[in-house]
Amino acid sequence: MSVANLKSLNELTSLCKRRGFLFQSSEIYGGVGGCWDYGPLGVELKKNVQNSWWKSMTYREDVVGIDTSILMNPQVWKASGHIDGFSDPMVDCKNCKSRYREDQIDLSKPCQKCGQSGQFTEPKDFNLMFSTQMGAVADSSNKIYLRPETAQGIFVNFLNVQTTMRKKLPFGIAQIGKAFRNEITPGNFIFRLREFEQMEMQFFCKPGSQMDHYAVWKEARLAWHLENGMRKEKLRFQPHGPDELAHYADAAEDIEYEFPHGWGEMEGIHSRTDFDLTRHQELSGKKLEYLDQADGNKKYIPYVVETSVGSDRCSLALMCDAYRLENEGDKEKERTVMKFDPKIAPVKVAILPLVKKEVLDTPARKLFADVQKNYMAEYDVAGSIGKRYRRQDEIGTPFCITFDFESLEDQAVTIRNRDTMEQERVSLDQVEKYLKDKLHF
Ligand code: ATP
Protein backbone atom coordinates (compact mmCIF):
# COMPACT_ATOMS: atom_id res chain seq x y z
CA MET A 1 0.00 0.00 0.00
CA SER A 2 1.39 3.45 -0.87
CA VAL A 3 0.96 6.23 1.70
CA ALA A 4 1.65 9.89 0.94
CA ASN A 5 1.82 12.77 3.41
CA LEU A 6 0.36 16.19 2.77
CA LYS A 7 2.19 17.83 -0.15
CA SER A 8 0.82 21.35 -0.03
CA LEU A 9 -1.38 23.54 2.14
CA ASN A 10 -3.71 23.97 -0.85
CA GLU A 11 -4.68 20.31 -0.63
CA LEU A 12 -5.59 20.78 3.02
CA THR A 13 -7.35 24.10 2.45
CA SER A 14 -9.68 22.51 -0.09
CA LEU A 15 -10.37 19.50 2.15
CA CYS A 16 -11.15 21.88 5.02
CA LYS A 17 -13.59 23.83 2.92
CA ARG A 18 -15.21 20.76 1.34
CA ARG A 19 -15.72 19.05 4.66
CA GLY A 20 -16.72 21.96 6.86
CA PHE A 21 -13.55 22.61 8.86
CA LEU A 22 -12.77 26.16 7.77
CA PHE A 23 -14.23 28.87 5.58
CA GLN A 24 -12.77 32.17 4.52
CA SER A 25 -14.16 34.93 6.72
CA SER A 26 -16.97 36.93 4.99
CA GLU A 27 -16.44 34.78 1.91
CA ILE A 28 -19.53 36.05 0.04
CA TYR A 29 -17.94 39.52 0.02
CA GLY A 30 -14.63 38.24 -1.24
CA GLY A 31 -13.18 37.51 2.19
CA VAL A 32 -10.95 39.57 4.46
CA GLY A 33 -7.21 39.01 4.69
CA GLY A 34 -5.84 36.96 7.54
CA CYS A 35 -9.22 35.92 9.01
CA TRP A 36 -10.87 32.50 8.79
CA ASP A 37 -14.10 31.05 10.20
CA TYR A 38 -14.20 27.63 11.81
CA GLY A 39 -16.99 25.42 10.49
CA PRO A 40 -18.76 22.74 12.55
CA LEU A 41 -15.88 20.26 12.32
CA GLY A 42 -13.14 22.86 12.66
CA VAL A 43 -14.57 24.33 15.84
CA GLU A 44 -14.84 20.85 17.35
CA LEU A 45 -11.22 20.14 16.44
CA LYS A 46 -10.01 23.45 17.88
CA LYS A 47 -12.01 22.94 21.07
CA ASN A 48 -10.50 19.49 21.46
CA VAL A 49 -7.04 21.04 21.16
CA GLN A 50 -7.93 23.73 23.67
CA ASN A 51 -9.51 21.25 26.10
CA SER A 52 -6.45 19.04 25.89
CA TRP A 53 -4.25 22.06 26.64
CA TRP A 54 -6.47 23.36 29.43
CA LYS A 55 -6.60 19.98 31.10
CA SER A 56 -2.87 19.38 30.91
CA MET A 57 -2.02 22.91 32.07
CA THR A 58 -4.58 23.64 34.79
CA TYR A 59 -5.62 20.28 36.24
CA ARG A 60 -2.57 20.42 38.48
CA GLU A 61 -1.76 21.96 41.80
CA ASP A 62 0.67 24.63 40.66
CA VAL A 63 -1.24 26.25 37.76
CA VAL A 64 -4.60 28.03 37.81
CA GLY A 65 -6.72 29.39 34.98
CA ILE A 66 -7.99 32.88 34.20
CA ASP A 67 -9.96 34.61 31.44
CA THR A 68 -9.14 38.30 31.02
CA SER A 69 -10.63 40.90 28.71
CA ILE A 70 -9.37 41.68 25.23
CA LEU A 71 -9.57 45.45 25.79
CA MET A 72 -7.22 46.73 28.46
CA ASN A 73 -6.07 50.07 29.78
CA PRO A 74 -3.67 51.42 27.11
CA GLN A 75 -1.03 51.92 29.82
CA VAL A 76 -0.64 48.13 29.81
CA TRP A 77 0.76 48.31 26.28
CA LYS A 78 2.95 51.26 27.16
CA ALA A 79 4.44 49.24 30.03
CA SER A 80 4.86 46.05 28.03
CA GLY A 81 6.69 47.88 25.27
CA HIS A 82 4.09 47.12 22.59
CA ILE A 83 3.25 50.75 21.86
CA ASP A 84 6.86 51.72 21.30
CA GLY A 85 8.38 48.51 20.10
CA PHE A 86 5.85 46.02 18.68
CA SER A 87 6.70 46.66 15.10
CA ASP A 88 8.27 45.03 12.13
CA PRO A 89 10.60 46.95 9.82
CA MET A 90 8.73 47.19 6.52
CA VAL A 91 9.73 48.13 3.01
CA ASP A 92 7.38 49.16 0.18
CA CYS A 93 7.86 48.48 -3.51
CA LYS A 94 8.21 51.95 -5.06
CA ASN A 95 6.38 50.81 -8.17
CA CYS A 96 3.30 48.86 -7.00
CA LYS A 97 3.33 49.89 -3.29
CA SER A 98 3.27 46.26 -2.08
CA ARG A 99 4.53 46.11 1.48
CA TYR A 100 6.94 43.46 2.76
CA ARG A 101 8.59 42.58 6.02
CA GLU A 102 12.23 43.50 5.53
CA ASP A 103 13.39 40.20 7.04
CA GLN A 104 11.21 38.17 4.70
CA ILE A 105 12.40 39.36 1.31
CA ASP A 106 15.61 39.62 -0.63
CA LEU A 107 15.94 43.32 -1.45
CA SER A 108 18.33 42.61 -4.29
CA LYS A 109 15.61 40.66 -6.14
CA PRO A 110 12.61 42.03 -8.10
CA CYS A 111 9.31 42.70 -6.31
CA GLN A 112 7.32 39.45 -6.11
CA LYS A 113 4.10 41.22 -7.15
CA CYS A 114 5.07 43.52 -10.03
CA GLY A 115 8.45 42.13 -11.04
CA GLN A 116 10.27 45.50 -10.91
CA SER A 117 13.82 45.15 -9.72
CA GLY A 118 15.47 46.68 -6.67
CA GLN A 119 13.00 49.52 -6.08
CA PHE A 120 12.16 49.50 -2.39
CA THR A 121 11.74 52.26 0.17
CA GLU A 122 13.95 52.49 3.25
CA PRO A 123 12.69 50.24 6.08
CA LYS A 124 9.99 51.85 8.26
CA ASP A 125 8.63 50.56 11.55
CA PHE A 126 5.02 49.45 11.35
CA ASN A 127 3.14 48.81 14.60
CA LEU A 128 1.26 45.53 14.56
CA MET A 129 -1.43 46.47 17.11
CA PHE A 130 -4.98 47.13 15.97
CA SER A 131 -6.46 50.24 17.57
CA THR A 132 -9.99 51.49 17.98
CA GLN A 133 -11.88 54.05 20.09
CA MET A 134 -13.59 53.41 23.38
CA GLY A 135 -16.74 55.35 24.26
CA ALA A 136 -18.77 57.84 22.24
CA VAL A 137 -16.14 60.48 21.58
CA ALA A 138 -13.78 59.68 18.75
CA ASP A 139 -10.57 61.42 19.71
CA SER A 140 -7.06 60.20 20.34
CA SER A 141 -7.48 60.25 24.14
CA ASN A 142 -9.96 57.37 23.78
CA LYS A 143 -7.64 55.25 21.71
CA ILE A 144 -7.62 51.65 22.82
CA TYR A 145 -5.95 48.52 21.45
CA LEU A 146 -7.03 44.98 20.70
CA ARG A 147 -4.57 42.88 22.68
CA PRO A 148 -1.72 41.46 20.58
CA GLU A 149 -1.04 38.74 23.17
CA THR A 150 -2.98 37.28 26.09
CA ALA A 151 0.01 37.35 28.46
CA GLN A 152 -0.45 40.90 29.74
CA GLY A 153 -3.88 40.06 31.18
CA ILE A 154 -2.07 37.52 33.32
CA PHE A 155 0.73 39.86 34.42
CA VAL A 156 -1.60 42.61 35.59
CA ASN A 157 -3.63 40.04 37.57
CA PHE A 158 -0.63 38.36 39.13
CA LEU A 159 -1.29 39.63 42.67
CA ASN A 160 -5.09 39.21 42.44
CA VAL A 161 -4.63 35.56 41.62
CA GLN A 162 -1.75 34.93 43.99
CA THR A 163 -3.53 36.40 47.01
CA THR A 164 -7.07 35.11 46.37
CA MET A 165 -5.89 31.59 45.52
CA ARG A 166 -3.27 31.67 48.32
CA LYS A 167 -0.56 30.49 45.93
CA LYS A 168 3.09 30.16 46.85
CA LEU A 169 5.88 30.41 44.29
CA PRO A 170 6.44 28.70 42.00
CA PHE A 171 3.01 28.72 40.37
CA GLY A 172 1.51 29.50 37.00
CA ILE A 173 -1.52 31.24 35.51
CA ALA A 174 -2.98 29.94 32.24
CA GLN A 175 -5.34 31.50 29.75
CA ILE A 176 -6.86 30.80 26.35
CA GLY A 177 -8.09 33.76 24.34
CA LYS A 178 -8.15 35.82 21.20
CA ALA A 179 -5.22 37.98 20.13
CA PHE A 180 -4.97 40.38 17.20
CA ARG A 181 -2.00 41.44 15.12
CA ASN A 182 -2.08 43.53 12.00
CA GLU A 183 0.30 41.15 10.22
CA ILE A 184 1.61 42.55 6.97
CA THR A 185 1.88 39.21 5.28
CA PRO A 186 -0.83 36.96 6.67
CA GLY A 187 -1.10 33.67 4.87
CA ASN A 188 -0.25 30.02 4.61
CA PHE A 189 -3.88 29.25 5.44
CA ILE A 190 -4.31 29.62 9.22
CA PHE A 191 -0.57 29.75 9.97
CA ARG A 192 -0.39 33.53 10.11
CA LEU A 193 -3.67 35.23 10.95
CA ARG A 194 -4.67 38.72 11.99
CA GLU A 195 -7.20 37.38 14.48
CA PHE A 196 -6.13 34.23 16.28
CA GLU A 197 -6.22 32.45 19.60
CA GLN A 198 -3.39 31.88 22.02
CA MET A 199 -2.99 29.40 24.83
CA GLU A 200 -0.50 30.95 27.21
CA MET A 201 0.85 30.15 30.63
CA GLN A 202 3.07 32.36 32.78
CA PHE A 203 4.95 30.49 35.48
CA PHE A 204 6.09 32.76 38.30
CA CYS A 205 9.20 31.66 40.14
CA LYS A 206 11.99 32.80 42.40
CA PRO A 207 14.76 34.76 40.63
CA GLY A 208 17.63 32.38 39.96
CA SER A 209 15.39 29.32 39.58
CA GLN A 210 14.06 30.26 36.14
CA MET A 211 16.41 28.10 34.08
CA ASP A 212 15.37 24.97 35.99
CA HIS A 213 11.68 25.68 35.35
CA TYR A 214 12.45 26.58 31.76
CA ALA A 215 14.04 23.16 31.20
CA VAL A 216 11.07 21.36 32.77
CA TRP A 217 8.45 23.31 30.81
CA LYS A 218 10.29 22.79 27.53
CA GLU A 219 10.05 19.03 27.92
CA ALA A 220 6.47 19.17 29.23
CA ARG A 221 5.32 21.17 26.24
CA LEU A 222 7.00 18.87 23.73
CA ALA A 223 5.40 15.89 25.49
CA TRP A 224 1.97 17.51 25.15
CA HIS A 225 2.30 17.79 21.37
CA LEU A 226 3.36 14.15 21.20
CA GLU A 227 0.41 13.07 23.38
CA ASN A 228 -1.91 14.71 20.87
CA GLY A 229 -0.56 12.32 18.27
CA MET A 230 1.95 14.57 16.50
CA ARG A 231 4.82 12.68 14.85
CA LYS A 232 8.10 13.13 16.68
CA GLU A 233 10.21 13.55 13.56
CA LYS A 234 8.06 16.54 12.50
CA LEU A 235 8.87 18.48 15.67
CA ARG A 236 12.06 20.17 16.76
CA PHE A 237 13.34 22.73 19.22
CA GLN A 238 14.81 25.86 17.73
CA PRO A 239 16.68 28.04 20.25
CA HIS A 240 16.76 31.79 19.68
CA GLY A 241 20.33 32.98 19.17
CA PRO A 242 21.63 35.87 21.37
CA ASP A 243 20.83 38.43 18.64
CA GLU A 244 17.28 37.06 18.18
CA LEU A 245 16.33 37.18 21.88
CA ALA A 246 13.66 39.71 22.80
CA HIS A 247 15.14 42.47 24.98
CA TYR A 248 13.38 41.10 28.09
CA ALA A 249 14.30 37.43 27.65
CA ASP A 250 17.27 35.54 29.06
CA ALA A 251 16.44 32.36 27.12
CA ALA A 252 13.90 31.44 24.45
CA GLU A 253 13.20 28.47 22.28
CA ASP A 254 10.52 27.60 19.76
CA ILE A 255 8.90 24.27 19.16
CA GLU A 256 8.76 24.09 15.39
CA TYR A 257 6.67 21.85 13.17
CA GLU A 258 7.60 20.86 9.65
CA PHE A 259 4.66 22.27 7.68
CA PRO A 260 4.40 21.58 3.93
CA HIS A 261 5.80 25.11 3.39
CA GLY A 262 8.76 24.42 5.70
CA TRP A 263 9.65 24.46 9.40
CA GLY A 264 7.67 27.07 11.32
CA GLU A 265 7.20 28.15 14.92
CA MET A 266 4.24 26.55 16.64
CA GLU A 267 5.00 27.36 20.26
CA GLY A 268 7.37 29.67 22.08
CA ILE A 269 8.93 28.93 25.46
CA HIS A 270 10.42 32.08 26.88
CA SER A 271 12.23 32.99 30.06
CA ARG A 272 10.92 36.57 30.40
CA THR A 273 12.81 37.52 33.58
CA ASP A 274 11.03 40.10 35.79
CA PHE A 275 10.64 42.50 32.87
CA ASP A 276 6.84 42.69 32.61
CA LEU A 277 6.01 42.82 36.33
CA THR A 278 8.74 45.41 36.92
CA ARG A 279 7.41 47.59 34.11
CA HIS A 280 3.83 47.30 35.39
CA GLN A 281 4.98 48.18 38.89
CA GLU A 282 6.80 51.25 37.54
CA LEU A 283 3.94 52.54 35.41
CA SER A 284 1.01 51.71 37.70
CA GLY A 285 2.77 52.72 40.89
CA LYS A 286 1.34 49.55 42.50
CA LYS A 287 3.69 47.13 44.22
CA LEU A 288 3.74 43.78 42.47
CA GLU A 289 6.17 42.09 44.82
CA TYR A 290 5.86 38.65 46.30
CA LEU A 291 6.36 38.16 50.03
CA ASP A 292 8.41 34.99 50.39
CA GLN A 293 7.56 33.59 53.80
CA ALA A 294 9.65 30.53 53.09
CA ASP A 295 12.71 32.75 52.69
CA GLY A 296 12.74 35.08 55.70
CA ASN A 297 9.86 37.27 54.43
CA LYS A 298 11.98 38.58 51.59
CA LYS A 299 10.13 40.68 49.03
CA TYR A 300 10.92 40.45 45.35
CA ILE A 301 9.45 40.55 41.88
CA PRO A 302 9.14 37.01 40.55
CA TYR A 303 10.77 35.82 37.37
CA VAL A 304 8.56 34.35 34.65
CA VAL A 305 8.82 31.40 32.32
CA GLU A 306 6.15 31.52 29.63
CA THR A 307 4.76 28.93 27.26
CA SER A 308 2.75 30.33 24.36
CA VAL A 309 1.09 28.32 21.62
CA GLY A 310 -1.50 29.35 19.02
CA SER A 311 -4.68 27.24 18.94
CA ASP A 312 -4.98 27.87 15.22
CA ARG A 313 -1.38 27.12 14.34
CA CYS A 314 -1.46 24.03 16.50
CA SER A 315 -4.72 22.87 14.87
CA LEU A 316 -3.09 23.45 11.48
CA ALA A 317 -0.09 21.36 12.45
CA LEU A 318 -2.34 18.57 13.73
CA MET A 319 -4.29 18.57 10.46
CA CYS A 320 -1.10 18.56 8.37
CA ASP A 321 0.27 15.75 10.50
CA ALA A 322 -2.87 13.62 10.35
CA TYR A 323 -3.32 13.84 6.58
CA ARG A 324 -2.57 10.68 4.55
CA LEU A 325 -3.34 9.83 0.94
CA GLU A 326 -3.36 6.05 0.56
CA ASN A 327 -3.04 4.16 -2.72
CA GLU A 328 -2.90 7.29 -4.83
CA GLY A 329 -4.17 6.74 -8.36
CA ASP A 330 -5.85 3.39 -7.58
CA LYS A 331 -9.52 4.05 -8.31
CA GLU A 332 -10.77 1.28 -6.02
CA LYS A 333 -8.46 1.69 -3.10
CA GLU A 334 -7.48 5.36 -2.98
CA ARG A 335 -8.57 7.12 0.17
CA THR A 336 -7.73 10.29 2.04
CA VAL A 337 -7.69 9.71 5.75
CA MET A 338 -7.09 12.08 8.63
CA LYS A 339 -5.35 9.96 11.22
CA PHE A 340 -6.20 12.19 14.16
CA ASP A 341 -5.60 10.89 17.62
CA PRO A 342 -9.16 10.03 18.83
CA LYS A 343 -8.84 12.78 21.47
CA ILE A 344 -8.40 15.39 18.73
CA ALA A 345 -10.79 13.95 16.09
CA PRO A 346 -13.84 16.22 15.71
CA VAL A 347 -16.26 13.31 15.33
CA LYS A 348 -15.54 10.18 17.35
CA VAL A 349 -18.22 7.83 16.05
CA ALA A 350 -20.44 7.65 12.96
CA ILE A 351 -23.66 5.64 12.98
CA LEU A 352 -24.52 4.36 9.52
CA PRO A 353 -27.70 2.36 8.85
CA LEU A 354 -26.92 0.13 5.87
CA VAL A 355 -29.82 1.47 3.81
CA LYS A 356 -32.37 4.22 4.21
CA LYS A 357 -35.27 2.17 5.57
CA GLU A 358 -37.38 2.84 8.59
CA VAL A 359 -36.90 -0.65 9.94
CA LEU A 360 -33.16 0.14 10.33
CA ASP A 361 -33.56 3.83 10.98
CA THR A 362 -35.50 3.49 14.23
CA PRO A 363 -33.07 1.22 16.12
CA ALA A 364 -30.03 2.93 14.57
CA ARG A 365 -31.27 6.31 15.79
CA LYS A 366 -31.70 4.87 19.25
CA LEU A 367 -28.07 3.75 19.19
CA PHE A 368 -27.07 7.21 17.89
CA ALA A 369 -28.86 8.86 20.81
CA ASP A 370 -27.06 6.57 23.26
CA VAL A 371 -23.62 7.16 21.73
CA GLN A 372 -24.19 10.92 21.63
CA LYS A 373 -24.56 11.01 25.38
CA ASN A 374 -20.81 10.47 25.62
CA TYR A 375 -19.22 11.35 22.28
CA MET A 376 -19.55 13.75 19.38
CA ALA A 377 -21.25 11.50 16.83
CA GLU A 378 -22.71 11.77 13.33
CA TYR A 379 -25.65 9.98 11.79
CA ASP A 380 -25.44 9.43 8.05
CA VAL A 381 -27.81 7.59 5.74
CA ALA A 382 -26.99 9.27 2.42
CA GLY A 383 -25.17 7.33 -0.33
CA SER A 384 -23.48 3.97 -0.51
CA ILE A 385 -21.82 2.61 2.60
CA GLY A 386 -18.42 2.81 0.84
CA LYS A 387 -18.90 6.51 0.13
CA ARG A 388 -19.96 7.14 3.69
CA TYR A 389 -16.86 5.36 5.03
CA ARG A 390 -14.66 7.53 2.76
CA ARG A 391 -16.29 10.70 4.04
CA GLN A 392 -15.73 9.66 7.64
CA ASP A 393 -12.10 8.76 6.80
CA GLU A 394 -11.62 12.20 5.33
CA ILE A 395 -12.81 13.92 8.49
CA GLY A 396 -10.86 11.48 10.68
CA THR A 397 -13.69 9.66 12.50
CA PRO A 398 -12.04 6.78 14.41
CA PHE A 399 -15.07 4.44 14.41
CA CYS A 400 -18.00 3.80 12.07
CA ILE A 401 -20.86 1.65 13.32
CA THR A 402 -23.00 0.01 10.68
CA PHE A 403 -26.48 -1.13 11.49
CA ASP A 404 -27.65 -3.77 9.00
CA PHE A 405 -30.58 -6.17 8.57
CA GLU A 406 -28.74 -8.84 10.53
CA SER A 407 -28.56 -6.43 13.45
CA LEU A 408 -32.33 -6.82 13.79
CA GLU A 409 -31.83 -10.56 14.27
CA ASP A 410 -28.60 -10.82 16.29
CA GLN A 411 -28.72 -7.48 18.14
CA ALA A 412 -25.14 -6.76 17.03
CA VAL A 413 -23.48 -4.12 14.82
CA THR A 414 -20.32 -3.88 12.71
CA ILE A 415 -17.67 -1.49 14.00
CA ARG A 416 -15.06 -0.38 11.47
CA ASN A 417 -11.69 0.93 12.53
CA ARG A 418 -10.55 4.01 10.54
CA ASP A 419 -6.86 3.11 10.49
CA THR A 420 -6.90 -0.65 9.91
CA MET A 421 -10.28 -0.70 8.11
CA GLU A 422 -10.90 -3.93 10.01
CA GLN A 423 -14.46 -4.67 10.99
CA GLU A 424 -15.67 -6.34 14.15
CA ARG A 425 -19.08 -7.59 15.07
CA VAL A 426 -20.01 -6.22 18.48
CA SER A 427 -23.15 -6.98 20.40
CA LEU A 428 -25.33 -3.89 20.94
CA ASP A 429 -25.12 -4.15 24.70
CA GLN A 430 -21.30 -4.11 24.45
CA VAL A 431 -20.99 -1.02 22.23
CA GLU A 432 -20.72 1.39 25.14
CA LYS A 433 -17.92 -0.62 26.74
CA TYR A 434 -16.16 -1.09 23.38
CA LEU A 435 -16.09 2.69 22.79
CA LYS A 436 -15.09 3.42 26.36
CA ASP A 437 -12.08 1.09 26.04
CA LYS A 438 -10.95 2.62 22.74
CA LEU A 439 -11.79 6.26 23.34
CA HIS A 440 -10.26 6.87 26.73
CA PHE A 441 -8.99 10.41 27.17
P1 ATP B 1 6.06 34.74 14.38
O1 ATP B 1 7.57 34.82 14.49
O2 ATP B 1 5.55 33.57 13.62
O3 ATP B 1 5.42 36.04 13.97
P2 ATP B 1 5.97 35.27 17.16
O4 ATP B 1 7.36 34.85 17.57
O5 ATP B 1 5.66 36.71 17.03
O6 ATP B 1 5.53 34.47 15.86
P3 ATP B 1 4.79 34.82 19.69
O7 ATP B 1 4.57 36.24 19.95
O8 ATP B 1 5.86 34.09 20.43
O9 ATP B 1 4.94 34.58 18.13
O10 ATP B 1 3.38 34.08 19.85
C1 ATP B 1 3.25 32.80 20.42
C2 ATP B 1 2.47 31.87 19.53
O11 ATP B 1 1.26 32.49 19.08
C3 ATP B 1 3.20 31.46 18.26
O12 ATP B 1 4.06 30.39 18.49
C4 ATP B 1 2.05 31.06 17.35
O13 ATP B 1 1.62 29.73 17.63
C5 ATP B 1 0.95 32.02 17.78
N1 ATP B 1 0.89 33.15 16.85
C6 ATP B 1 1.61 34.28 16.88
N2 ATP B 1 1.28 35.09 15.86
C7 ATP B 1 0.32 34.45 15.16
C8 ATP B 1 -0.44 34.77 14.01
N3 ATP B 1 -0.28 35.93 13.36
N4 ATP B 1 -1.35 33.87 13.56
C9 ATP B 1 -1.54 32.70 14.21
N5 ATP B 1 -0.86 32.35 15.31
C10 ATP B 1 0.05 33.21 15.79
List the helices and strands and how they pair.
Blueprint: E1 3-4, H1 9-18, E2 22-24, E3 36-38, H2 40-58, E4 63-65, H3 75-80, H4 82-85, E5 87-92, E6 99-101, E7 124-127, E8 131-133, E9 143-145, H5 151-155, H6 158-164, E10 171-180, E11 195-205, H7 210-227, E12 235-239, E13 251-259, E14 262-273, H8 275-284, E15 290-292, E16 298-300, E17 303-310, H9 311-322, E18 323-326, E19 335-338, E20 349-353, H10 358-372, E21 377-379, H11 385-395, E22 399-403, H12 405-410, E23 412-417, E24 423-427, H13 431-438
Parallel strand pairs: 4-10, 20-21, 20-22
Antiparallel strand pairs: 1-18, 2-3, 5-6, 5-7, 8-9, 10-11, 11-17, 12-13, 13-14, 14-17, 15-16, 18-19, 22-23, 23-24
Helix pairs in contact: 2-9
